[in-house]
Every structure is written in C-alpha cells, then in structure tokens.
Amino acid sequence: MEMTKDLKLSVSLDEFKTQYERLKQNEEALRVSEERYRLAVEGANDGLWDWDFVTNKFFISEKWKRELPNEILNPKLSIMGKWTRLIHPEDLNEALNSFKEYLKGNSEYLFCEYRFRTKDDYKWVLTRGKILRDKVGKPIRMAGSISDITYRKIYEEKIKDLAYYDRLTKLPNFHYSKEIIGEKIKNNNGIRKFALFLIDLDNFRNINDTLGHQFGDEVLITIKEKLKLIISDNDILCKTGEDEFLIIKDIDYGKLEAENFAKEILNYFQGPLSIHNHEIYSTISIGIEIYPDNVEDAFGLLRNVDSAMYSAKEKGRNTYEFFNTDIYKDIVKKISLESDLRKAIKNNEFELYYQPQMDLNTEEIIGVEALIRWNHPHKGLISPVQFIPLAENTGLIVNIGKWVIETVCKQNMKWQDMGYEDVVISINVSSIQLQQKDFINFVSDALKKYNMKAELLNIEITESTLMKSIDSVVIKLKSLKELGVGISLDDFGTGYSSLSYLKKLPIDTLKIDKIFIDDVNEHSIEDAITGEIIQLAHKMKIDVVAEGVEEKNQIHLLKSQNCDKIQGYVLSKPVPKEEVIKFFKSKL
C-alpha cells in the first residue's frame, strides 16, 4: 500500500516536471515571438495602430509615436479629436467621409490617403484598417497600419506635371484642358455659357527656322505673359499645341462678348514682340467656340474650336472665326479628300500633263512644264488647286513629289528614245519637299537611274516657298545647281517681290506671273512693270518666262521687251504626254 502511494507521487512529480518544462518552453516561445513582433514593428516603415472602442484605448507603434506632435498626448481630446487635428484641412473632409463610409459597411477595408502633420512637417500617409464587430454587429475594435507615402506622392506629382502641363510654359496642356472643360461642363449643368478661344501664332515655324528653337521658346513665353495680362482671374490659360494657346472664359452676353474679347486680343498683338533686342512681327489667328451652342462635350468643343481656328487661317490670318456647321462640313470634306488622297498615292491615280514653253527668239518649243492631275476613280480629274494645299498640310506632298520627279525622269528617257533629246522639263517643288534631308540625293539618284541630263530638269519654286525658310532653301538650291539642275522662281510679283533676295538666289529663270500679262498692252502700267522686270533680270543674267500668255498681241509686245520665253493658252493648255509631243520642234 505504501509502495503504491510512493509510485503515484513519483508519477505526479514527473508529470509536474514535464508540464513545467512545457510551460517554460511556451514562455520562451512567447518571449521569442513577442521579441520578433517587437523587432518587426520597430523595423517596419509602417506604423501599427489599434483602437479599442470598449475601453477607448488607442495604441500606435513606438516608431510612429515618436513622429507625432504633442497634440496626440492631450488627455482632454478624444481619440478622433486628436487625430483629426493632425490631418491637413484640405484633406479632412475626404478622410472623415472615408471613415464614415467604412463604418456604414460600404467598403470592405478602410483605405484613405491624406496629408498628416508630424513634429517636422506634413507627410502624405496611407491609412489602412479593419474593424471587429460583436455578435450584433456593433464595432468593438479596429486595427490597421499607417504608411508614409510622401515620396510616392512627390513622384506622382512629377508624373502629373509631365502628363498634364506644358514643359516650357508650365500651363495646362491639351490633355489637361480637356479635363478642365469636362469639369466645367459637369459642374455647369448648361446654366452658364463659356467660350473657348484657340490662339495660333501665324508663321511660328519661320521664327524657329530663321532664329532657332531657343529663340522660338522665348517667343512662346512672351506670348504667354502677354495673354496673362489680358485675361481675368477666372479665365484659364492653357497651351494646347506647339504654338497654340487656349483661353477658357466664362461669358454672360454670348457671341457679342466673345467677339469683343477676340478683337481685344488681336489689337493687343498688333505691335512687335520685343525679345533680346529683336522686334518680331507676327500676327495671330483665333478660333472661337461657345458652350453649349453646338456641342456639349469637351472633345467636341476642342474639335470645333480647332476647326474655327484653321478657318481663320485660311481666310488670311490675323483674324478670328466662330465655329459654324459650314466649317464642320468643310472639315469633313477635307478628311474624306485626305483619305482619298492617301489611296491615290497607293493606287497610282496621278497623271502628269505638260504645257509647252516657247523660245521667243527661235519661236521653237524648247521645254514643257509638268503639271500634276489626280485621276479620281469616281470624280474624274481633280485640279491640283484642290488637293496640293491639302497634300502640303498633311505631308503627303513628299511622296507625291517623289512620284513626280521619278515620272518626269522616266518620261524624259522615253522622249530621248523617240529622238526628242533636248526637251527641258520643269516641275514645281514645295518648301516641304526642299526641307527633306534626302531631297538632293533623291533627285541625283533619279537622274542617274533614267540617264537624264541634269540640265534638262528645271526646279520651280514660288516666292512664298522661298520666304518660309530662305537660308535653308538657298542651301538646297545651290546643291541642285551643283548637280547641273536649272532653278526657276515662279509667280514673281505675287508675293514679296523683294529685289534684295534675288541676289542671294542661284536662279536661272524668272517667271512673271499671269496677273502682269493679262492686261499688258503698249503704254500700260503692266507694260512698264513687265519691261522693268525683264531688264533687271537680264542685268543679273537671268532668263525671263512670261506665264499665262493667251493672245498673239501679247507675244509681240513681250518680244519687243526682249522676254526670253512664253507659256500659256496661246500655245496650248496642259495636255497629256501623248499630245504634247506634236509641239516638239514645231513653231508658232
């Protein structure tokens, strides 16, 4: 019996020792776990917080507690009172609404970003949290984390600046202006009108080409500063393109008020811009659209005001134009024409017609001008007057121009095989073509490919083409001259007619425009002007071609003035390649 008691006591002691060892192990494991938790909390960037609604006790990890100002220790303030005092006033409503919406059960987690005051400064923080409820759904506890996201916010602001603001002027860009307009429409509900004024600097490309892009940037900054002086505090100024500024302006009296403001802008820009001792004269074109007269969405408003601005440019620039449905119809037509023009290039729908040129001394046809025609599959022949400006505006003129050069060289080879070896072919070239880096090489390669003598190719440029970038054009023309290609200045007298730049140009021929020829007769002003132009050209060793000659008496008068060549309906209208050969070696 005594032995049984000793055995039971021994077993109890062993169990006690085992349980004690387990307890020590559990305490050690708990200590290690707590130590690990403490290290994790202290080492983490995030702060951990816990709010017991029952006891109204609030815990926040030590690292973040050190960041907080003394307000958080004020025992007189509630926990919410302490916290809300540290939230930036501009972010307070949004933060409280997020908290209230979460308490109502409208979101699965509390998730809110706001600026939070620390001992040093405001920081952007992200607060996350989740609530614990009792059996009846009453909140009893909430815990979560708070993260410093200041650097992320700074990065986001930089990204936003790049995405929404113009790099040079720091004004809202096109994308941001669309959002601004969208917000105005959303908050407006059609109650109050506002107008868009799209302002484009005329001939800005010339400024960049002649004075450099850095100077062009100075011009844009000056334009911005001038516009800021003319707009009111409630107006919004944006920069929506390379040289385009947009003003968004509330108006009370509709079209008349918008028109008066446009006139004010135009008047304000009548004088020169003074930049680094340079005086720059440049006009502006303004497109105007009023909300909600035609459309009620941001994209439509921007599209319409852009159309109105281009309409103002087409009407001579230095003016303004309101959007109307006719402008929109014209735009639709141009879009359709552009689409057809792209197909025409792909489907080879172009054709060259040729107009003879006669030497007045020998009365022989010594050359032709190649004139492009578009043989549209449904509309028939389309004049270059209709599609060349569109081709230049869209850049399609580059491919069209290359087709013309290659076709002319190929045609010359065929005429040589037929025995017509000395026919000079003139082609018109735009400033856009001349500005292409590969233009000179392309001409040279085409001449070699079709074994065409360079002196049988004549490049014609207009005064307007020349003045768009005179220095770079002159360089290209000199390169063409080195190849042996002839150069003609077309439509002389209709543009700038500056005699000073004639000295700079490596030209062989001056073409007098038709407007001087139409009314030319003895003792007329046109007769005197034409005679003076011919004499001046000859003194500079430049040949003269009179364009648009339609009557025989004009031929005799031009011959008496020693004009070298003529071109016009008196000889022939432009005709296909099959018909023009009958004029070769013939006389009038």
UniProtKB/TrEMBL annotation:
Signal peptide range: none
Residue ranges annotated for the EAL domain, each copy included: 334-588
Taxonomic placement: Bacteria, Bacillati, Bacillota, Clostridia, Eubacteriales
Transmembrane portions of the chain: none
What is this protein's name? Uncharacterized protein
Q: Which CDD domains match?
A: EAL (cd01948), GGDEF (cd01949), PAS (cd00130)
Which residue numbers delimit the GGDEF domain?
Answer: 192-325
**One Pfam family this chain carries?**
GGDEF
**InterPro entries named among the record's database cross-references:** Biofilm_reg_signaling (IPR052155), EAL_dom (IPR001633), EAL_sf (IPR035919), GGDEF_dom (IPR000160), Nucleotide_cyclase (IPR029787), PAC (IPR001610), PAS (IPR000014), PAS-like_dom_sf (IPR035965)
